[in-house]
Amino acid sequence: MDYPDRKGSCEDYSGRGPSEFVMKKPDLVAPGSNIVSCNAACGKSGVGKTKSYIGKNGTSMATPIVSGAVALCMQKFPEDTNEQIKRRLLWSCEDLKEPWNKQGWGMLHVRRMLYGN
Description:
32% helix
């Protein structure tokens, strides 16, 4: 992935490691900036709802992307254990050339995880 207009590819709001339990984190990163999602504060207008969807940022936006990728992987490889699924997820990540405590294994790469390319 190339982000020519951004200094670095990982946002500063993500969790960093190591944790108090000496665990490295994050394991990986996923898109979590400017994700279009439902707006809890949407209002009504004469024609209908206004601003029903807005761009949001944060780990709460990245988490469902990773969960969806894991669901696809479990569907494609139903015989895999949870540990094997995690390995597939991590080994397929794309290195963003960021420090480990900022990117972990790298950016989630769903196609590589499912098809190996």
